[in-house]
Amino acid sequence: MKQQKLVAALAAALAFTLSATALAAQPDPNRVWVKYKPGTGAAAEAALKAAGARTHYRFDRLRAFAATVPPLALQGLRNNPNIEYIEADAPRYPSAQTTPWGITRVQAPETVATGADGTGIKVCVIDSGINANHEEFAGISMTGYPSGWNNDSCGHGTHVAGTIAAANNSVGVVGVSPAKVSLHIVKVFDGAACDWSYSSTLVDAANRCQSAGAKIISMSLGGRTSSATENNAFASLNSAGILSIAAAGNDGNSTFSYPASYASVMSVAATDSTNAKASFSQYNNAVDIAAPGVSVLSTYPFKSADVTVGASSYLVAAIEGTVQATAAGALVNGGLCDSVGSWAGKVVLCERGVISFAQKVTNVTSGGGAAAVVYNNAPGGFSGTLSGSSTIPAVSMSQEDGQSLVTGALGQNANVSTVPVSNTSGYAYLDGTSMATPHVSGVAALVWSAKPAASNADVRTALESTALDLGAAGRDNNFGYGLVQAFDATAALLGGGAAAPTGLAASKGPVARNKSTITLTWSSGGSTVDVRRDGSVVAAGIANTGTWAQSVRARGSYTFQVCNGGSASACSGQVTVSF
Predict the structure, then answer these.
(1) Catalytic residue flag (residue 220)
(2) Which positions fall inside the Peptidase S8/S53 domain (predicted)?
(3) Do 49 and 76 reside in the same domain of the chain?
(4) Is-catalytic flag, 127?
(5) Residues 39 and 137 in one domain
(6) Do 265 and 400 sit in the same domain of this protein?
(7) DSSP state of 285
(8) Are 436 and 293 in contact, with CB atoms under 8 Å apart?
């Protein structure tokens, strides 16, 4: 019954997603602030009416109207002697909680909304432990091993766990399965750097995951040297029904990393926000799937920096090399900070770009600034380095927060701290296939929760067969089968995957020297298809463009069929061509 309800919910959600995409409301680009000169309120209001404007608010103390003005009337209003200035009525967005870009990219929110939210699935995270007291993990069922598993000395394990399970609680970030999965934490790394462990320690940890009842083992770790014993151990876990998932590695080359490259383990590559392969992501024929791994915002047990403006706090990171200090002052906009300004005692906002972070911070220092806040020139946050040191606090900030401050908070008092704090509810942007791996682990939990009786092989097949094809058509060494997609994989596992190709038709070109080109056309089907001729696959895993052509070199009759990639049942009807 639960599965039937989920199938219905998935179908309804898909229909809603399609319609919502087409109808989603956007901020009105013609909505503006109109400030009038003293004593001219009535005349300004009359001018707005004459221009065909629609007034939303009137603020007498501000001498301003908020109105939507026809674009052709704007210049005339700007020239009106009663109007002091006109500026955009800038949109504002909720900023108390952030959904990291990768969470939406893997279709997690719409999958959770159908009820396939990870409930009942235990994910075992083998890493550096976890800051169990972090605000994002309140209420999550959590166990671990050994003593000290609930503390994290380097932050890596906490970041990974947050991507899987951070709560939807109005603060911080949201995970793939927000506080729905249960977690078992096995700590194998320790110390400030969490440098290394052993393959035997990893096998022991994986066995403890099995004993704890975990269905999924998430390993954001690896090494260059394979081990026959370790390989056998993961093969045994696979036979026991456990899905093991590991990072493909960050060397940016074609070398193999283990345990990811064992056949019984899913190897995860990393993508950036444009769906391109991350420059550091290893690529080889063992890569199975890809997930977001660049500028991933998640939970962290430390705060390297703090910024508050007025009563609002912002997620920031200390730029490497900054002095550890505090500063306060009125917030000002320094633009690109590519020259020295007059900023004595001010906290200066600098947009990233044109010159280095070090040059920006030097210019702010030379201009008397108390602190530099460098915000990104692309969506999301970033981590930076001064390749040296500074005498004033320097922090990085997301583009969204930086732009919001520029348009709505200049002049307010800002407090900046680059004094690190440990054992706290912090957040950080990190890069790596380590960050991609928990996206896949969390998605696997969502998918499996939709059909708990499914096997680990069923879940793996659903993830791979529905991944968004990136790079070369079909499976390739950079992305494996493509970007993991929770919604599509859940539908596939429940039997509601992509419909079989329909309407297959064939045409033949001119016959010359006993050769002709056969062109097939069809509709529907999955993202990739196989073309069969006389029962044999002649084109496997090609992108579904609805058409395919082949030059046939001998006269005769040929029977074609098109099937969803990897399927022998989700197929079109047959069509026979003779020449």
Answers:
(1) no
(2) 118-327, 412-482
(3) yes
(4) yes
(5) no
(6) no
(7) T
(8) yes
- The token pair that represents 48 in the structure block: 């707005």
d(CA 255, CA 224): 8
Q: Which two tokens stand for residue 102?
A: 């990768």
- Catalytic residue, from 134, 156, 159, 184: name it: 156
pLDDT at site 14: 42
Q: CA 427 to CA 301: how far, in whole Å?
A: 8
Could you tell me the two tokens for 222?
Answer: 């690896």
261 and 377 part of one domain: no
Backbone angles phi, psi at 277, to 5 degrees: -65, 135
CATH number, residue 390: 3.50.30.30
What region does 552 belong to: left with phi over 0, alpha with psi -120 to 50, or beta? beta
196 part of a folded domain: yes
469-510: per-residue pLDDT in tens?
Answer: 999 888 999 999 999 999 989 988 887 556 678 888 988 888
- The reply to whether 369 and 518 lie within a common domain is no
Contact 88, 33 (CB under 8 A): yes
Peptide bond into 259 cis (omega under 30): yes
| Tokens matching residue 526 | 């999955």
Q: Which residues of 42-51 are buried (b: 16+ CB within 10 A; e: fewer)?
A: eebbebbeeb
CB atoms near residue 137 (< 10 Å): 23
CATH number where 234 lies:
3.40.50.200
Q: Which residues pair with 349 in a beta bridge?
A: 333, 373
Q: How far apart are CA 502 and CA 70, in angstroms?
A: 48
| 3-state SS class at 183 | strand
Q: Is the pLDDT of residue 21 over 60?
A: no
Domain count, the chain: 4
The one catalytic residue among 89, 127, 152, 530: 127
For residues 305 and 301, what is the distance between their CA atoms, to the nearest angstrom? 12
pTM for the full predicted model? 0.71
| Choice among 182, 218, 298, 434 that is catalytic | 434
325: containing domain: 305-419
Residues 214, 104 share a domain = yes
Q: Write down the residue that tokens 């708990």 correspond to.
A: 452
**What is the rounded average pLDDT of the residues 278-300?**
94
Domain shared by 326 and 452, yes or no? no
Is 476 one of the annotated active-site residues of the chain?
no
The CA-CA-CA angle for residues 283, 286, 289, to 5°, reads: 75
